[in-house]
Ser/Thr protein phosphatase family protein
Amino acid sequence: MRYFTSDTHFGHPLVSVLRGHIKNGRIRAEYMEVWHTQGRDAAHAWIRETLTQESIPFTKAADVASHDEAIIAGINERVGADDELWLLGDVSFRCTVAHTLECLRRLNCKHLHMIIGNHDRNFRLRSNDKLYEDVFETIDDYREIELDLPVLTDGHVTLAQDGSVRTAPQMAGMSHFPRATAMLDGRGTWPDDRDKFLDVAPETDDWLIYGHTHQETPDGTDPLCVNVGEDAWGFRPVSEREVIDWLIEANRTNN
């Protein structure tokens, strides 16, 4: 089975805190209460203000070890040694290469593939691929794989006589970034993405699997794409079957 995830952010204090991995028990409890009652955006604003008021830097507040353990456990609970795991960028940040490799080597899966993200050390510097060659079977900025995806006619799913959605082998792109057209019109991207990453965003308008945005739901910028980021799937990897089912439903709804 193939699995996909993105934005593991091993070793990253800021992301650890924003995901609720906070050393101070009082602050952690209050943060999670704000998250549950007011939503994630309100919680993010609250924690930034609280840490500033209490003069606590994110590096001191973060329980990075707890965060990394949770991400590793979430992967190992689903992905077996003989499966494939595609990591779609931002594997780690603000940590040593040794820490990144330690986390990757603790994954049960022995068939790891890397799609490079903007926080990875080999982003725009492919000579640094060598840092990761011992743990990844392939390393790419963008790659396409074949999936059994819904057959579309004029943008709508095609149904078989029994009412099921017709599918056929088709190529799907994998990128850390949303498609370039989404960046151009600001759909589902960070405000400064256009200026920073438009040149590396995929130009395809076909099927696309990506991450980067740290959104809470898998909704793509359009029905032909899906976000597989950790934050969108309950901090666990997504199976090939789940990706296909999501895209089928997204395009069935689009009928």
Observations:
- The chain has nine helices and eleven strands.
- The longest strand covers residues 142-150.
- Residues 56 and 138 are 40 Å apart (CA to CA).
